[in-house]
Amino acid sequence: MPSSSVSSATAPVFRVDIPLLPESAVGNALQFIDLLRSANLLAGLRLGASAPRLAWRLLDARGAPLPVLPGPLAAYTPTPAEPPSGPPFALFIPSFHTADIPAIRNAVARNGPLVRHIGIALDAGQKVFTLGNGAWLAAESGRLNGRQVSLPWFYVAGFERDHPDIGFALGQDIAEDGPWISGALPISVGDLAVSLIRHTLGSALAEACATVLTPDHERTRAALQANAQQHIPATRDSTLARAIAWMEAHLDEPYSLARLAEAAAVSTRTLLRHFQQELSQSPLDHLHSLRCARAKVMLEVTLESVPSIAVACGYSDPAAFRRIFARYTGMAPGEYRQRHALRAPRRRWRVDVAAR
Fold first, then answer.
1. Domain boundaries, the chain
2. C-alpha to C-alpha distance for 179 and 88, rounded to whole angstroms
3. Do domains 13-213 and 217-340 have the same CATH topology?
4. How confident is the model at residue 5 (pLDDT cuts 50, 70, 90)?
C-alpha cells in the first residue's frame, strides 16, 4: 500500500477488463463495476490522493473496448479522453443468459476469440473472475486444468462432462484457486468484488469494503439505538427481550442489575438464570457487547474522540472503555477506527470560504 506522500499521479491503478457477449448478463457486469466504484470511494476517503484505485473497461467479444454507452450507462464506460490507465490485472466474465447446457456450449463455440483472449491473459499472469456459467469460457482456454470451480448444482454434471480435469469446490459459493476466482450465483458478485479488492487494494480495504457491502444486522440495530434510543417492538415480549430492550435504551447509563430486573419484571436471580441459560453470559457481559457494538458504529462513522465515545457508550472512565473494547473486539479503539473508519480524517477536509 502506498504511503500518503505518494502523489495521485503515481498511485497504482489496477485495471479489470469485462468482456460482454450478446448472451451476457449485463446486470452482473454493471453491479460488479458499482462495487469497484464503491471501493475506490472508500479508498479515497481513507487514503486521499495516494490511494490505489481500480479501473475497468467493457470489451466486445473480440477484446476491443466498447464505445461510450448512452444515457445513465455512460458512467460505466470511460470517455476516449480519459481511458482507464494501468496494465490489465484481471478479467471478469459475467454469467450469460442461455436456456440450457447445449446453449452454453454453443455460446462458447461462437466466441473462440474471447476464449483465446482469456488464455493469453492467464499466460500473462492475470487473474480471471467468473460468475456462474461464465466459468465455461475460462475453462475452455485450457489453462485451468487441475483447478477447482464453484458452480450452481444444476451445472455440475454438464460441466464435468465438458471439463473432467477441473474439480469442484463443493459447499462453497466462491472458490479461489490460483489465478481463477469463481462465484456460483449472482449473489456471489459482492464476494468476487471483495476478493478482487483484497488482491489489489489490500486486505485492510477489502475488510472495510466487506463491512460496507455485507448486511450486518448488529450494526444496523446499534446505529438505530445510538441515533434514536428505540426499543425492541412489543412482539418480542419475553424476559430476555424486555431486559435487552431496556439495555439498548439505556446504554449510556450506569449499569444496575436491580433496575434491569425491574424492567424485565422478574427477580434479579431469575434474570441471571435466563441470561445464563439462553445466552451463556451475564447481563453485564451482554451489556458490554451492546455497548461495543455502538462504539464500533461511532468509530466507523463519526470523528468523535475516544473519551466522547466512551461516555456515549456508558463508560465514564475512558481507560476502562479501552480495556473492555479490546477484550470484546481484539483491538484497541484507535486501531479499530484506523481499520474500519468510513470518514476522512479532519486534516483532509476542504473548506471553501466564499467571498462576502
1. 13-213, 217-340
2. 14
3. no
4. very low
Give the rounded percent of residues in the chain with a pLDDT score beyond 70: 88
Question: pLDDT at position 347, please?
Answer: 55
User: What ranges in 230-340 are assigned the alpha helix state H?
Assistant: 239-249, 257-264, 268-279, 283-301, 306-312, 318-329, 333-340
d(CA 195, CA 39): 12
User: What does pLDDT average to over the chain?
Assistant: 86
182 and 150 Cβ atoms separated by less than 8 Å: yes
Most confident of 12-16, 142-146, 240-244: 142-146
CA-closest candidate to residue 42, choices 173, 193, 222: 193
229 falls in which pLDDT band (50, 70, 90)?
Answer: low
Long-range contacts, stretch 201-206, CB < 8 angstroms, 24+ apart: 201/1, 201/14, 201/39, 201/43, 201/51, 201/52, 201/53, 201/54, 202/1, 202/52, 204/1, 204/339, 205/39, 205/42, 205/43, 205/46
Between the alpha carbon of residue 63 and those of residues 20, 58, 203, the distances in Å are: 9, 9, 30
> What CA–CA distance (Å, rounded) separates 75 from 34?
10
What whole-number percentage of the chain has pLDDT above 90? 58
- Superfamily designation of domain 13-213: Class I glutamine amidotransferase (GATase) domain (3.40.50.880)
CA 342 to chain centre: 13
Regarding the domain delimited by 217-340, which CATH topology (the fold level of the hierarchy) does it fall under? Arc Repressor Mutant, subunit A (1.10.10)
Q: What is the per-residue burial (b if ≥16 Cβ within 10 Å, else e) of 15-24? A: bbbbbbbebb
Q: How confident is the model at residue 94 (pLDDT cuts 50, 70, 90)?
A: very high
Backbone angles phi, psi at 79, to 5 degrees: -75, 155
- The 3-state DSSP class for residue 349 equals coil
| Helix then strand then coil, % of the chain, to nearest 5 | 55, 10, 35
